[in-house]
Write a structure and sequence with these properties.
- The chain is mostly helical and 131 residues long.
- The chain has one domain.
- The chain contains four helices and no strands.
- The radius of gyration is 16 Å and the shape is globular.
- The chain starts with a helix and ends with a helix.
- The relative contact order is 0.14.
């Protein structure tokens, strides 16, 4: 189970980081809709990942993996934002009141997203299982 957990969290975090990076870097392209392709790829890969793992673990374990993926993803995205893209966060000081407030909103959104994906894929995986 530990290897599955590390794999799911790793793939989830890399998917989120690469998608966000692609979205940010392609935002200035002549075709603005191109950047949204990264959002679509992120959604498809995340759902596929959780659907694959949902067949073999319980709902509570799946939700736990989702919550862990959300926390690690948000943490890494914060690090990338402040260290590699300071222009994107130039109006924020790290760990200021405003930053923590925005971070809280981001965390709630990420936790909700991964919980919904985990619960939904669990239901789909159970219905796909042969009787």
């Amino acid at each position: 189970m530990m290897i599955k957990a590390v794999f799911v969290v790793s793939v989830g975090v890399v998917t989120a980081a690469v998608s966000l990076l692609g979205f940010v870097l392609s935002a200035g392209s002549p075709a603005p809709s191109f950047s949204y392709a990264f959002v679509g790829i992120y959604v498809v890969v995340t759902v596929a990942l959780f659907l694959l793992i949902a067949r073999t673990i319980s709902l509570s374990a799946l939700i736990g993996l989702g919550l862990l993926t959300a926390l690690v993803s948000v943490g890494i995205e914060q690090l990338l934002g402040f260290y590699y893209f300071p222009g994107l966060v130039k109006d924020l000081d790290a760990f200021s009141g405003e930053h923590l407030q925005r971070l809280g909103v981001i965390l709630v959104g990420a936790l909700a997203w991964y919980s919904i994906v985990a619960a939904s894929t669990h239901v789909v995986a159970r219905r796909m299982r042969p009787s």
